[in-house]
Structure formats: C-alpha cells, structure tokens
Amino acid sequence: MTALSREQLTTSLRGISLRQVRLVSGVVLFAYLVSHFLNHALGNVSMEALARGVYLHTSFWQFLPIAILFYTACLAHTALGIWALYERRQFRWKAIEPLQLVLGLSVPMLVITHIIGIRMGLTLYGHEKLYPQVLFLHWISAPYRIWLMLSVMTIAWVHGCIGLYLWLRMKAFYKRAAPFLLAAAVLVPTLAMLGFYQGGRIVVDNDSVEWRAENLTQRQVGTREQQQVLDRITDYALIGYFGLIGIALLAKGARAINERRRGMVSLSYGNGRTVRVPKGLSVLEASLRNNVPHASVCGGRARCSTCRIRIIGDCSALPEPSQREAFVLGRVGTSDPSIRLACQLRPATDLSFFQLFLPHTAADGHGSNPTRIGQERYLVNMFVDMRGSTKMAEKRLPFDTVFIVNRFLGAVSQAVLESGGMPNQFVGDGMLALFGLTTTRQEACRQALRAAAMIAANVDELNKFLEHDLREPIRFGIGINGGEVIVGDIGYRDHMVFTALGDAVNVAARLQDMTKSLSCEVVVSDEVRAAAGLSADSLPQHDVEIRGRNEPMIVRTVADARMLSALVNEEQSAAA
To answer: Is residue 2 part of a domain?
Structure first.
C-alpha cells in the first residue's frame, strides 16, 4: 500500500462519525428484523413453509462475513445506545427521540434470553432449536412468553421505524415514498404476529406423545443441565447489561456534579434573555433546559444547520468546531468563525449570541413537511418575462394594464401546471416556475420544455383574444436552467413563501434576459437539453458569458417555443 493510499484510508476512517456508525449498524439490524418478520409471516401458510423460510434465513445470516457484520452491528448499536443515554443531557420531551432511546435500550434485555437460548445453545451444544421447538416453549411450556415475544417484536419494530423516519424524512423522495413505507410498517409486523399465532396453534393442535418424541429430542432442545447453564449465562448477560446502564446513569450524575463544581456560565441571547447553566452543556441543551425557543429541525444531531448562532464579540476563546460541526458549516458555505452550531458548541466562558433562524420556523416545519424547512435538491427553474409591459402601461389605464398582465400570467401559470410544474413567484410581469419537486431529473427537464411550448400556444390564443385592444402582440422571453438549489419557506412570521434559492435560479433569470440579445423566445442551458434527451444537433448552440461565473456557459436557443413540444415527444418516442 502506497503512502498516498494509506493517507486516503486514514482520512476516510477519520471522516466516519458515531452517527454514521449508528446509522449503518441500525440499517443492518433492521434488515435482519425484516427478514425474521417475513419468516414469521410464513406461519400463515404452514409449518413446512416456516421450515423452508428459516433455512433460507439462517443460511444467509450465518454466512460468516454476514454473521460478523451482523454481530458487530449488534454490539455497536447497543454500545451507542448506552452512550447516547450518557451523552444526551436534554430532550425535546414532546419529540420522538426519547421514545426511540427508551425502546432501543429495552430491546437487548428482552431478546437476550432468546438469543442465548437459540444461538448460544447451537454454538455450545449443537442444539437445533427451530420453529417447532421455539413455538412449543412459548405456547405450551411457558405461555407467558407469548406476550414477551409479541412485546419485543412490537418494541424492536417501532424503534427501527422511528430510526428510519428520522433518517429519511429529510430525503427528497420521502414524501412520495411515505405512503408505501407506512403500508409496509403496518403490514409486515401484523403478518409476522399472525404467522407466530398460526404457528403456535399448529403446534398446540399437533401436540402429542409422538410429536414430542420427534421434536423435543436431546439433540434439539438439550438436557436439563445444559439448559441450566444457558439460564446462568442469560442471568449474567442481563446483570451485565443492567450494570452498563447503571454505570451510564451514575456517570451522568457524576458529570452533572462535576460540571457544577467547575462553575456556571451565562448565555445571553441578544434579546435581553440570559440564562446560567453549568459548563459542558451545549448552547442548544441550555436553551431546551431553560425553555428558551431554539430552532433545531434535526433535534440537535448536527444533521441540519437550523440551530446556527452568530457570536457577538470575541470568539477566539471558543473551542474549535468538531469534525461534524465543521462539515455542516462547510455545507452551508460559511467560514465565518462567529457562526457556530448551537447543538455542538459547548462554551466554557460567558457567551453572547443571537439565533440566525426564528424558532417558529423550525417548529412549524418539524412536523409533516420537512421540505418546507430547507432542503438541497435538483430542480429545473424557468423564468418567464412579458416584453414591453412598461411601454404598454404608458399608453393605457392602470387597471387595463393590470388586466392584461394578469391574463398573461394566467396563461403562463396554466401551461406550467398542466405540464407538471409549480408556479412559484410572481415579480411584476414575470414569473418563476419550478419543475422536479415530485419527479425525476429527466422528467423535470422534459416538463419544463413542454411548458415553454404550451406557454407559446397559450400566449398566441391570448393575442387573438386581445387583438382589438393590443397595438402589437404580447411577446415573452423564457430562460430554463437546472441545478442544485435550496428549497424552503422564506420570509417572516405570517409572510412566509415557499421558494428556491441558489445559483441555478439566478442563471435561469439571466438566460431569460439573453433572449433579447439572442433574438429568440427561449434560452435553455445545455444541461437541461441533454437531461431531457434532446439530440446535440436539435437546437442551435451558443457559448455565453454569465455574470458572476468565470467560465462560459453552453446554452441552446429556441426561436419559436412551440417547436419544443414536438422535439420532446419525438425524442421520447425514439427512446421508447
């Protein structure tokens, strides 16, 4: 291995955070849970189906590399759960995180008996406990275990679903996938529990001397002495697990006492509010402890930047940003040392600051629609502008001008909506439309091009309708560009609007301006043309200078916007 590759490997390993380890280990465990639940669901078919399913299930999960990954994930996720119990100083008690933590800590103590009885029995004594033996134990030998099994199935499933929700809710596809995920979240455990019930009833119905002689042999369930050994191992494991939780709680108490001995710090919020908290608390934890509203969409996990604060005064004495904090601040494009994440900054001295995000913004968005909080995603942006409206206003009554402009914007909006886009902002006689909020990149590009063609057709109809009132027909310019933008609610209190911000939006506006100098109706970035599937020779090409960019940009011009519809349909038919 070369020095360069070793350095790259070291850098990659250092870039792995506890959050990423928790996420990966949780996904592995949830995959196991889904596999096990689907196996349980086969009990609705027959005991033979259960036997075939468990063979496939164990063949996969006991394959040595998979088994190593699985047990590593078990240990890592459990350890990180105990660490989270110690590390978390404050919760949003109305939020979902405390429930997830409590459920997660409950799972190991509920499954230890099952794991040791099945897996440890196989490893130590070669026991082959499969569904008939396990179901006999739950339904006949110790019926109280039925409720224990149903409880652990529910707790583990809910814990996993909460974790997936907290991870996926900020993803662009989540809104579309949510109904399907909800259906799976309800159906999978329901079918698993029904399968467990049906399998248990089969065992109860078949219970007889002959059945026991065949299914409860020493090779399958072991001897009484072996079971006593497994029971002792279970007891020691439970004592050890509860001991670790107790150590975490004692460590929390010791830390609290130590922090108070080290002294208190004053946090001033810049609005006259000041709180005193022990050293060691993050600014966000101090806010939550003292019921000070503080924006934090991700719940203090450094997955967003909504808890950002700006330090007032000297910030040289503050601790350096952690790796995770530096990453998030880098993502939002700030190198200002006075900008910090409240969930990560733990001041050791008095601090004055003000919040960059209004708390109510996060509170409003925290619930059902995370897209409106602020999210980076690819969109196709279209700027449409009406030509000559200022000259028109000079020669018409104000209300007549407003009427014509409204009819124009109505024609444009109708085309955008029918094409699958969203009219977003109206500025004078112009409009910004967004495509791609609920579609793929390719489809968004095609929708924008079809919308441009439909705008031209609608404006033609409008010109015919107003030909007796217009000295010359209404003309327009359209700029279309795609790229990564930030979408979310912008504004103040009751005056919030959903919009897109970013360089891609600014470029679309400048391309619309270029329709005048290039003598065309539409200017499209070459990226949109390629993503829509149009051939390279379908539209004239130009290299243009974009204000604010160092490199020239390749664009395509369209003299008559109506031709775009035929082009898109032709290319789509050819691709099909």
So the answer is: no
